[in-house]
Amino acid sequence: MADLLRSGNTMLNMACPVCNNPIFRNRDGNTFCPTCNRNVLIVKDDAYESNTIKKSDPYHKEKTNVFHPRKAELLNSLQEITLEKIEIITKKLKNETNSQIIKIYTEILVICLEILSKIQGDEEK
Question: How far apart are CA 65 and CA 17, in angstroms?
């Protein structure tokens, strides 16, 4: 990222809705995510602001996803919380000997993993 700044790119105060890393603008005015290696088109609308990510697709020329800014923020927050819960339960599970508690922890972990899978699927849409 420092190299991008040194080469004249500008870091914007927006995050990529896919990977949550900073979005940059080059000297030509094009916005992009250096982590995802994707162009980012920022669209301002009267109804609401949205970020549109153009993704390369081998079967189509371009595939465009529209994200409401709060949606990406909420999904990232939910993902972080879910990962924290997985970490907490995994630590508790490591030392647990009661089979009923182990079963409960395992069921919770399965639900958390399903949530993460759905978040990642929603981010790709």
Answer: 10
Question: What whole-number distance in Å separates Cα of residue 54 and Cα of residue 13?
Answer: 19
Return the SS3 of 1: coil
**Residue 25 gets which letter from DSSP?**
E
Counted domains in the chain: 2
- Looking at the structure, tell me whether residues 8 and 63 fall in a common domain: yes
State the residue range of the domain holding 14: 2-67
Nearest-angstrom CA–CA distance, 55 and 51: 13
Q: Return the CA Rg of the chain.
A: 19
Task: Report, as an integer, the average pLDDT of 92-109.
Answer: 89
pTM, two decimal places: 0.43
CA 89 to chain CA mean position, Å: 23
pLDDT, tens only, 49-93 = 444 444 443 433 344 444 456 777 778 888 888 888 899 989 988
